[in-house]
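Bench notes, afternoon.
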Amino acid sequence: MRQNLQLISNATENGRYSIVDRASWHMGDIASEFKNLSIIPLPPYSPELNPVEQVWQWMRQRKLSNRTFSGYENIVSK
């Protein structure tokens, strides 16, 4: 996880600050060594704070519900 946080920190422009949610693999005080990075806790289900949750909800409701797929390529092509 430190390597991932290091990549995020390196990609953050000078004068900017990054925030990472507190997933189980982000736990601990591993962000303290980075000057431009913080870890904050999010509620377990917070689609308004994590936009990708909206995408998965839309996919489940419109594209993936009540269907079967033969494999990954079949899912991607739909």
